[in-house]
Amino acid sequence: MLKDTIAAIGPLDETAMADCQLRIDNLTKPLGSLHGLERLAVLMAGITGRARPRDLVKHIILMAADHGVAAEGVSAYPREVTPQMVMNFCNGGAAINAFARHAGAQLILVDIGVAVELPPMPGLYREKVAPGTANIALGPAMTREQALRAIDVGIRMARVAVSKGAGVIGLGEMGIGNTTPSTAIIASYSERQHTELTGRGTGLSAAAIAHKADIIARALAVNRPDPADPLDVLAKVGGFEIAGLVGVILGAAAGRAAVVIDGIITSAAALLAVKLAPAAGRYLVGSHFSCEPAHREALKLIGLDAYLHLNMRLGEGTGAALGMRLIDAGLHVLNDMKTFGEAAVAVAQDGPGALRQSADIV
Ligand SMILES: Cc1cc2ncn([C@H]3O[C@H](COP(=O)(O)O)[C@@H](O)[C@H]3O)c2cc1C
Ligand SMILES: O=C(O)c1cccnc1
User: Fold this and answer.
1) Is 316 assigned a catalytic role?
2) How confident is the model at residue 355 (pLDDT cuts 50, 70, 90)?
């Protein structure tokens, strides 16, 4: 399923993008003055293949899983919080429930590797590959075969979303300890030291951050993940929700849906996804800058921008939900504003086309 999905990822529609850019350049505002929002609208034209996309259906796919490395004391919270938070998501009481409502997005919940058996709940997909990963400080998180199975789950979830009309898919995750494997993945591709990339996660002290960095160093030394082989990195120092999200990204890109990433965990998944399929990178949209230092590093490695500086460090897809609102804002600009001609406003002296050529406007 992975190979076919990667093969199905097409280029953006450059004609739709050019037509969209032309309309935006003629809207009643100084040329380029809504910069980031304009770029989002043009990107959505390229992804959807429509010069004036509007009212896109939004889904947030939240994958939950546990991590053997949590036994090393790398999180400020106990492992039981993972299933408890999944129940909280199902019952509508978590931050992401509020954010999904705010964004007008449907929340899709997936148990892809929670350590305990969860009861059937409305809205919860039970797709457990295994009850949590093994401890990456001691050996590989999972087998390569399990990594592939988890990716397939994500591809299927993205296909379901696309078949329900989703044009924008936000990524969310839950899994106590998951900033540790995410940092290990990002460190595998970075020239920066893992100590510089390790952050406080749910709220570690400086001493606990140093311990977490040691565990990450051990995971990398014990497993020796091969960056030339993203599946190797994923299987050795990843997690089931991270693997699932890799699949969601690839499946969404193959289905011509935009993918809005969130913080460090989803950006680790995005980094692996673009290593597996560079063409998927054009379907990615950044949202906020997380407090986690590895998040910025991942964005840099992917070559992706983010927009919101809110010092958030929650995950669940909360930043992605805000990113979806920025896409909406860009599409409202595109669809609701009038052009100079439609509104009878005098155009800039040299005309927008001439201004666009000038070096100042990018
Ligand atoms: C109550 C609670 C709700 C959360 N929602 C997301 N996370 C976030 O924190 C975890 C990662 O941080 P670390 O690696 O330090 O464990 C993940 O579950 C992530 O989604 C939460 C964490 C807690 C405690
Ligand atoms: O960057 C994130 O999304 C994040 C940071 C800390 C804990 N959980 C998630």
Assistant:
1) yes
2) low
